[in-house]
Amino acid sequence: MASVASPVIFKEFCPLYYLLNAIPTKIQKGFRSIVVYLTALDTNGDYIAVGSSIGMLYLYCRQLNQMKKYNFEGKCESITFVKLLSCFDDLVAVGTASGRVAVFQLVSSLPGRNKQLRRFDVAGIHKSSITALAWSPNGMKLFSGDDKGKIVYSALDLDQGICNSNLVLEEPSSIVQLDYNQKVLLVSTLQRTLLFYTEEKSVKQVGTQPRK
Question: Which class would CATH give 17-22+33-175?
């Protein structure tokens, strides 16, 4: 008996003009006109987060069809990575070209959830471009990696407004991917992939040959 073929679903892909039109293509700084480049992207069911070359994070709320903007104080530097998380509160982590990492705890209109925008900073451990960010499912842990091979663990206490960070691993090549689940951090670098067991602080390499 011939198997029945599953139905084919056609999808149309097109530019998100409603999103792109809400982001300026140029800004004026003094007498100079600066082109705005889009440098980082992450999405979930509630938000689309877009990082830019001027240090501005554009956050589009899909439910309300609204665009909001967040930035770092001081120097305007390129955002290199953004990572959203939807748990009890909505969170977005942002990394920059100089190694700054910040977490924004977003405002929610739902009862019992956060009513005031709050920001947490990962203080001064990274000194180079952020290349990867990974959340724990409950939003209490954030891992950040940079292009010099440093991986930083940040413990967040959203109720107390505290963020404590420390260096947990240092690789000889750039971090290209992080993913965290069940006390295990998956780390990919330009040279290898490994599992870092956060409780035991032990490392297990995936495979035996280095990447070429």
Answer: mainly beta
- pLDDT tens, residue by residue, 142-193: 999 999 999 999 999 988 888 999 999 999 999 999 999 999 999 999 999 9
Other beta carbons within 10 angstroms of residue 105's beta carbon come to 20
Contacts of 97 (CB under 8 A, 6+ apart): 77, 78, 79, 80, 129, 130
Domain ranges of the chain: 17-22+33-175
Q: Whose structure tokens read 């209109």?
A: 109
Distance between CA 33 and CA 109 in Å, rounded? 37
pTM over 0.85: yes
How many whole angstroms separate alpha carbon 17 and alpha carbon 137?
31
> Please, what is the Cα angle at 130 between 32 and 107, to 5 degrees?
80
